[in-house]
Amino acid sequence: NTFVISFYRIIFSVGKAQDFPAGFKFGVATAAYQVEGAWNISGRASSIWDEFVHSRPQATADHSTGDVACDSFHLWRRDIDMVAELGVDFYRFSISWTRLYPNGFTNYLNEDGKRYYEDLIDTLLNRGIEPLVTLYHWDLPQKFQDLGGWTNPLVVEWFAEYARAVFTLFADRVHTWITINEPIALCDMVYHVGSHAPGILSPGVGNYICMKNVMLAHAKAWRIFDEEFRSKHYGRIAICNMHLAYEPASDEETEAAELARQLFVGVYTHPIYSAAGGWPPKIEKIISDRSLKDGYNYSRLPAFTTAEKDLIRGTYDFYAMNYYTGRLVRKAKIADKYGIWPLEASTDLEVIVYPDPKWKMSDSYWLYVYPEGIRHQLNWIGKNYGNQAIIITENGYSDSKMDLNDKERVQYHRGHLKQVLLSIYEDDVNVTGYTAWSLMDNFEWNSGYTQRFGLYAVDFTSPLRTRTPRASALYYGAVVRQRLLDPVYDNPYQTSRASNIVIHTSVNLFITLINLMYC
Ligand code: PNW
Q1: Which end of the chain offers a freer environment for a tag, N or C, measured as fewer CB atoms within 10 Å?
Q2: CATH top-level class for 20-483?
Q3: Is position 394 annotated as part of the catalytic site?
């Protein structure tokens, strides 16, 4: 088999079409609260997710918590082994603010927390794997939530101080940073949907205040890095945005779809990446008009001062995009019932949002498989914000099974990687990296452990939290090593394995012969 693979690799490298370009990097991702566990040991204090799941057991589908999760606080060496098994270039993980700084403020550093991240980072580097670090993946110190959290303007300073402290500890070794993961999730999923911690419902008000503070917090952290650390240590830093592919339900709905895109993504990109800075102008006007019409004296979306716009504009070194799924968009009709933004409707935009019935549903209620959407989003970024490097920082598929032969997940990653290649080769978009979510099954927020995104399956019934590679891990590892969309790999979970290898190899040899004839 090894011989067949090597032979195939050498011969097939003649046919360039499926190759990932030189310099294109692959990675896998996790986030602190979803994997670490050890919620109250070694000096860690509570974050908003600890408080949320402990006080509201019904917040998660299986009434579970992240108290133990994958126990990566103890099993991180095994995690690194898995990252190495996959052969990827980088591991994206996040830092738990309260593990490092239990008070939230940086007046007290928890040495155990420092040691944990130091060990993780140093061991990754020793094994030739680049750490890609997210400063904030939704786990605000509860102490700051008690003071208003992301709606208190002081959060900008709290976050900036925390960022400076983490850069001081690790910027000599970490060279790619994400400030904040998916602002949509910590503003809208909290204040609009109420599903994410701390679950405060304040639709159309709290989410907009949060948005402004998130933009400023990111910008301050970026400027601290730029002014105090960049000259000493090479590095690049950006915010990370979740993209839904909002598609017009018909030709007449192009404008409605673009507005939805602007409210979902544009509010977090326009202030940073556009030449003018500030909120997307149409969104700013719509929300302001609506607020005044409803009797408010000013817009529910807080305005930026000129100084704030200038502070935020240009605070990027690359573009970090997460992509999972899409929605169709149409203008609302008078009789329509409004669901909740961002997955059903927007009352401010008067649009209805729904999945295309043609898209295959995963086991997650929100995740429909729409690979073409990733290409559309990459093009949208390229068209609107120029040709800077784009790293896909998350993309993945969920199911509710322990199944190791996860054919759907293999197909999902293959389908999206194919669209990424089309963006690179057909559309000239500068995509430089791809990250599979997730390295392993983990605490999937409101779904608890009922939804699994892992390339590695985790046995949550065992105290050992045993990790086992799925077929998708074997496929992805082969993609990474062979740099091909359709690599040869051995799937031990497939029943008719031998015959499949024979068929697969024969078909590929045939394609190779045709390639050679045309060379
Ligand atoms: C991402 N939506 O969140 C997160 O970054 C991960 O922590 C999470 O585990 C992963 O996706 C899978 O859910 C999402 O609006 C945020 O559809 C928003 C949406 C989807 C995923």
Answers
A1: C
A2: alpha beta
A3: yes
